[in-house]
Amino acid sequence: MLLGKDRVLGIDIGSSSIKLVELEQYGSAYQLRSIGEAPLPPDSIVNKAIARSEVVSHTLSTLIDDLEIEADDAAISISGDPVLIKRVSLPKMSDAELKKSITWELEQSISGGIKEVNYDYQVIPGKSTRDNIDVLIVAANKNATKDYISLVTGVGLNPVIVDLDVFSLESMYEVNYPDSEGLLALINIGASVTNINIMENGESVFARDLPIGGNKYTHLIMAEMDLTYEESEEVKHTQRVGLTDPGLKQFAHKFIDSLCFEIKETLDFFSTTHCNEKLQRIMIGGGSSSIPGLKDALSEITHCYVGVLNPFRKIVYSEGAFDPEYIEDLSPKMNVAIGLALRKP
Ligand SMILES: Nc1ncnc2c1ncn2[C@@H]1O[C@H](COP(=O)(O)OP(=O)(O)OP(=O)(O)O)[C@@H](O)[C@H]1O
Ligand SMILES: [Mg+2]
After folding, report:
1. What's the confidence (pLDDT) of residue 130?
2. What is the 3-state secondary structure (H, E, C) of 140-157?
3. Domains of the chain (ranges, CATH numbers)
4. Any bridge partners for residue 37, and if so which?
5. For a Cys staple, 171 with which of 45, 80, 215, 339, CB 3.0–4.6 Å?
6. What is the DSSP letter of 279?
7. How open is the CA angle 285-286-292, to the nearest 5 degrees?
8. Ligand 1 pocket test target in 216, 233, 288, 331 with most atoms within 8 Å of CB
9. Quick check: CB of 232 below 6 Å from ligand 1?
10. From the CB of 266, is ligand 1 less than 6 Å away?
């Protein structure tokens, strides 16, 4: 059993809510220890930068107290605007030359230059030819990252892992779907960002964050039905089992069409530039994946099977301690937080 220092609290700071998950490991099995979500006012996180740190900090510390969290260490992740993810193909070269080339690539892509980011890169296994190597580069804005770290230290936790949402998704997937093979896309549709991670035989070969999510749908409802943000969110949630209002159905389709179009463009870009194999499966998650009609529309436009991610597939929980209906309700939004809670310090 992993106890104390080996356990990290997964904290997913989303633009619509903060999600927390704490797991306990028994051999290769995982058990849920704590889980919870607390909503954030709409202007707290703007373009995935922390805009109102006191509000976000208060929401986080209240949630930690309510859930009686005992962990000292936390894993967090960032996404969207502060993050750059790029796949490049380069001629075969030495490690030192590769480092220089990556620096050059980043200088070209980041307006303020490389000094503004923390970055890392990885040669994609199995993708190198005799003459070329494919590399996945990730960079995160230093100021934005610092704000997320300060938030966590401010509530008395050690941020031992700072990941990206797209890769937390992958950590969640590896544990819950251990025998996954072939080419598949994990797509997490949140409030302001859609994270896409394309995996081939268990390895990430492409990743991207699209600046679109359920907020776009909320804003459509606000404008067309003359409602506040809170009222529009309420409308989205109460209509979850089926869209009966014809007006609402129209806004949902408008949102679904634009989202599916952007996802398809990204998948097509990947196919034309990096891979001519056919995608075998798309697995969706994130709060906005629950919008009725979205799954079928995505399947239709991509001509691909679309399934729903279950972050609790291999995680057990006591039904006495957690109401299964509550877990089922939270499940789509918990992919990133569970991926983070699965990380080792
Ligand atoms: N049942 C539902 N039907 C429609 N939309 C829903 C439903 N449940 C949640 N949503 C929407 O999902 C979004 C929240 O999802 P999620 O928690 O994954 O996002 P987030 O992590 O806060 O945001 P991001 O990662 O983009 O910063 C909101 O836009 C919310 O309105
Ligand atoms: Mg999110």
Report:
1. 77
2. EEHHHHHHHHHHHHHCCC
3. 4-82+140-341 (3.30.420.40), 83-139 (3.30.1490)
4. 19
5. 339
6. P
7. 75
8. 288
9. no
10. no
> Which atom of ligand 1 is found nearest the CA of 13?
21
Q: Residue 135: enclosing H or E segment and its boundaries?
A: strand 132-141
Give the integer Cα–Cα distance in Å for 335 and 77: 12
Return the amino acid letter for 101. S
Strand, coil or helix: 97? helix
Closest CA to 157 of 76, 77, 39: 76
Q: Are strands 132-141 and 203-210 parallel, antiparallel or unpaired?
A: unpaired
Q: Which residues does 31 contact at the CB level (< 8 Å), separation at least 6?
A: 23, 24, 25, 315, 316, 317, 318
Tracing tokens 């309420």 back to the chain, one arrives at 234
Nearest atom of ligand 1 to the alpha carbon of 286 = 18
Helix then strand then coil, in percent of the chain rounded to 5, is 40, 30, 30
Q: pLDDT tens digit string along 148-189?
A: 999 999 999 999 999 999 999 999 999 999 988 899 999 999
Residue nearest to atom 9 of ligand 1 (CA): 287
Among 12, 13, 15, 16, say which to mutate for ligand 1: greatest number of ligand atoms within 8 Å of CB. 16
Residue 291 has which token pair?
């919008």
Could you tell me the distance, in angstroms and rounded to a whole number, from the CA of residue 288 to the centre of ligand 1? 5
DSSP state for residue 114 in the 8-state scheme? G
Alpha helices by DSSP H, listed for the chain, are 53-66, 95-109, 142-154, 165-176, 214-225, 229-238, 246-274, 294-302, 324-330, 335-341
* Dist. CA 286 → ligand 1 center (Å): 6
CA 335 to ligand 1: nearest atom: 18
pLDDT tens for each residue of 179-197: 888 999 999 999 999 999 9
Q: Is 16 in the pocket of ligand 1 (CB under 6 A)?
A: yes
Quick check: CB of 127 below 6 Å from ligand 1? no
Q: For residues 269 and 266, what is the distance between their CA atoms, to the nearest angstrom?
A: 5
**How far away, in angstroms, is 285 Cα from ligand 1 center?**
10
